[in-house]
Amino acid sequence: MGLTLYRRRKFVNALGLALSGVAMAIGLAALLWILWTLFRNGLSAFGADFFLRSTPAPGSAGGGLANAIVGSLMMVAAATLVSTPIGILAGVYLAEFGARSKFAAATRFVTDIMLSAPSIVIGLFVYAIAVATVKHFSGWAGTLALSLIAVPVVVRTTENMLALVPGSLREAAFALGAPRWKVSLAVTLRAVRGGVVTGVLLAVARIIGETAPLLFTALNNQFYNTDMSKPMANLPVVIYNFAMSPYEDWQRLAWGGAALIAVIVLGINVLARVMFRDKVRA
Description:
Elements: H1 2-42, H2 48-52, H3 66-97, H4 102-116, H5 119-131, H6 139-163, H7 167-175, H8 180-191, H9 193-207, H10 212-216, H11 235-243, H12 248-281
Helix pairs in contact: 1-12, 3-6, 3-9, 4-6, 5-6, 6-9, 7-8, 9-12, 11-12
């Protein structure tokens, strides 16, 4: 009886491992296929004009994505500057001060909803409060939409990382007479700064490719523009418009923009994992 049960468990374990390996192989094959297609079609568009010239007019040859690259960088950088302190401080409050309060529970609930909400819903919300009221699209509206997407990511990551800090570290700081706010900011937050930075980088990696919110907020601009109170070109919207166009030059630029975003996102994820790994080893 015992030997039969052992063999059955061993068979189920081997079957589970085999199915898991097959699923992993299928996922990796699909991912490699997507990346191969993307880089094969996109890297050929890279060049001096791609990074230095603005988007061309319909039917025009040449051109690049300089205005879209600058617009995306400006809005993502502004959204990061807005969402990082808000997300980190909110995460510190939830982990260190509001563990059992009703306000903290409500905040966690809203954060979970924002994490799972489709980005187009956030774009429509920002459109209603920041675009329809002033009667024009703008880079600031796009920044607001991206910030609302990034904040819950930073909040959740910060709270989860602070939950990993052992209680003995806090008790040692309290024993030295440090107030609670100083323990939270100078001891526990510093102990997990690598994980918090990782969360910020992952939030940036998520918002840099968002298209739907920017369609309703920043829209697009064919010309080079650094005034964020006006409509701004951005990579996701330009890729969407150019990929759907009948012009081969536009389609080539769309492949190049998609490859550029993929390279940036992959680079950010690799950087985040390297920083987190080094922190764990330390």
